[in-house]
Amino acid sequence: MHTTAHVDTTPSATVSAPLLQAVDLAGQRGERALFHHLALDLVPGSVTWLRGRNGRGKTSLLRLLAGLATPMAGTVNVAGRPVRRSQPEWRRGLVYIGHQNALKDDLTAAEALAFLLQLRGAAPDSARIDSALERLGVRASRRALVRTLSQGQRRRVALARLALSLEQPLWLLDEPFDALDADGVAALNDLLADHAARGGATLLTSHQPLSLAEPVPRIFDLDHHGLA
Amino acid sequence: MTELFVAVLLRDLRLASRRRIDSLLPLVFFVVALSLFPLGVGPEPQMLREIAPGIVWVCALLASMLSVNALFASDLADGSLEQMLLAPQPVIAVAAAKCTVHWLVSGLPLIIASPLVGLLFGLSGQALAALVISLVLGTPILSLLGALGAALTLGLRSGGMLLILIVLPLASPALIFGAGAVGTVESGLSAAGHFSLLGALLIATAVGAPWATAAALRISTE
Fold it and tell me: Looking at this predicted complex, what is its ipTM?
């Protein structure tokens, strides 16, 4: 099944140069083509909701944009230049949170978060980590082993990275609202709004309707030729 | 690159310290398997002394392979590997750190235990020294090759079997020269040639395997 998707043409998308641009992108999973000729711009200050039925390639697209997979065709441009996966500057500006939380069961919440920070080359400052966990409402669990946390608490710990990554311009989030309760959703919405206000761009998938009020999320629909 | 290496190294050592049973498995296997040989082949001291180098090295190789399958598997399953691949530093740092941790947790305890095991088999002082030196040079080769095999078979069904089929032939030279060094000393000859060959193998593996492992990790996670 082939999908042709088009670029957003809202006024906000045209006034700012895109932080990330997918041009004529084609992706596959195994032998199956997922989409062709896909064009997508992520502009500063935006949140884009990537929608589509199960199996349409939302996660595959996020992985392509993150540089974790190679497209069948097309390019991913950052600041107008094709991304080479080895470019450190590009990776420093990117936060990717996948389906899995990337937390080890035998580390505490604070240790797991500190490791994820170190991967980015940032110092694991405990005060900042506490503050990030606080923002997601899991500071009380900072010394708890990840294995003892509920699914929702683990998701909150994983998302606490975002509170430490507001300076990273590009966030790619795969089902970030999964397992979150109403407070967790509100905390994540707050982070998304804060990030957008600082000029960041977020592309996220979600099977739940988004409750983010500001900025109004742009919708990119893989089922219906791009924009809904 | 150093920051990424240190971060992965320290995290994996911390994890190993919290999973002591899993971490001790290679050492326990090594000692238990070796202690079974006198029961199986008989307690005759001369024969045990003659077969000791070979069986110590075979047991070290198999013990080393016990834990290598899990080297990247849990990081792949929980999403940590993706985050490591997205780090702004080269992936080779991850491969090198993983090899180092594997050697520290699986190889080093075998080296420490080997003099005791050698004594049980009646090896002479010189042969014991040769055994330790050969394991010091050889066990890092096993960790480096094991990591490469683990990366190549990551996420595959029956990956464990494939891993053994890939790594064991590659590790054969280390086994031959390692066991040969001890046997040579037992025969009253110098083992310098064997050590030189083991050293050359170690250098070649240390230079090539982390690059290949890093590339294999990228391919396996696509």
Answer: 0.86
